[in-house]
Amino acid sequence: MIDFGFDKLALIGAVALIVIGPEKLPRVARTVGHFVGKAQRYVSDVKAEVNRSIELEELQKMKSQFESAARDVEQTVHREVNSASSSVASAWSEAGSALEGAGADSSAWTPAPPAYEPPRKNFRVKRAAVPRWFKQRAGVRTHVQSGAARVARFRPPRHGNQG
């Protein structure tokens, strides 16, 4: 930016006082200050936009790095799972051939257990997650009550004929 010292500002003020005059100088100074403030706000907005774009680029680079690392991990896991499943399959086939080769009785070998089946739920039975006593202690409403009924419930009792 332009470097203004105190001596240069004093010289500019003296020239402005002579050229513009003492009557119009405050209004001109106010207008100049207004335009300088606008210029500073514009420069700060441009700086903020540049910083945001730089941060966005950095975040996009970081995102691409994380995505590539995740892909590498996923590929490694798939390779390990495939190698483990192939080794288990080969060991299983070897064990099966050893049983057949030893002349073992086929009734002694038990098959694999059946596949998992999720439990059947009876959706007609209501299962509350929170016990009723806990709701009562916490003050949770368990049934709906009209506004008039709520007012009547909390109205103080009348004593005698004070009406």
Word description of this protein:
- The protein has four helices and no strands.
- The protein is mainly α and 163 residues long.
- The protein has a domain at 6-91.
- The longest helix is centred in the middle third of the chain and has 77 residues, at 25-101.
- It is flat.
Tell me the span between the first and last alpha carbons: 83 Å
Number of helices: 4
Q: What amount of the residues lies in strands?
A: under 5%
Helix percent band: 55-70%
Major sheet details: none
User: What sort of overall outline do the alpha carbons produce when their principal axes are compared?
Assistant: flat
Rounded to an integer in angstroms, the radius of gyration calculated over CA atoms is 42 Å
Q: How does the helix and strand content classify structurally?
A: mainly alpha
Helix-strand sequence: HHHH
Mean pLDDT metric: 84
Pfam family, one: TatA_B_E
Family: Belongs to the TatB family.
Membrane topology: Single-pass membrane protein
Organism: Ideonella margarita
